[in-house]
């Protein structure tokens, strides 16, 4: 068995034992390999986690079943591993760690291409969905992938608009990539798996939890070249995605709405804080991306 295969099996087992973003395990992995750690579970598992320990043979079965279902496992060091995920930790040493591994269905190289995350309110308004559709369609027309979380509301509108425009879209799930959530978006998620990419750090078959939704935000922020919030309330999880992206030096845009609209209050707050710039169209988002490209070219020079 190759070193890569041993590392892969170890990371499959670890993914079952710990929750996403575990900094304790990330610190250990910076000093030793996953394959070595998996032989000594007592060094990285708390006592109340031992029941979730997965043996190498169990991890191998999970991997075989995933491969048979057309699911691609990706680990750090693979050519398909998105290098930008490291920005999660680079932005803040106390931030949750980057994923132990990813599972993907569809166009895997899409994960490393330029993309814009469009995310926001689940209980979106017709106004929010209209501007989301316009922005996503324009980005898709410029061959920029649209990334979202496949949720109801703004996320679903972004995915649908990108697909309708013949563009590419990426869905980041808080569940396993073979477990459509929300269930009402099963058909949409299956289509994204064919015409785009569905990705998650969770083992296939895993159900989402509140913590996993929170941790999913760091993947959305890190994978994206920029983040746009068309509508979001002041307690929306989309605001944490925007804050994370801002911390990683990603451009963030927020769409203004009526001052009386609760689902635009979060967008207004982001602009007031200086976390986001005001955007009102796809052209504004493209301008925002252009500024990011100029910054990258300056750094490289």
TrEMBL record:
Coiled-coil regions listed: none
Annotated Gene3D superfamilies: 3.40.50.450
Domain Smf/DprA SLOG stretches: 74-289
Pfam families reported in the protein's UniProt record: DNA_processg_A
SUPFAM superfamilies recorded: MCP/YpsA-like (SSF102405)
Family statement: Belongs to the DprA/Smf family.
Descriptive protein name: DNA-protecting protein DprA
Native species: Leucobacter chromiireducens subsp. chromiireducens
Phylogenetic classification of the source organism: Bacteria, Bacillati, Actinomycetota, Actinomycetes, Micrococcales
Chain's gene name: dprA
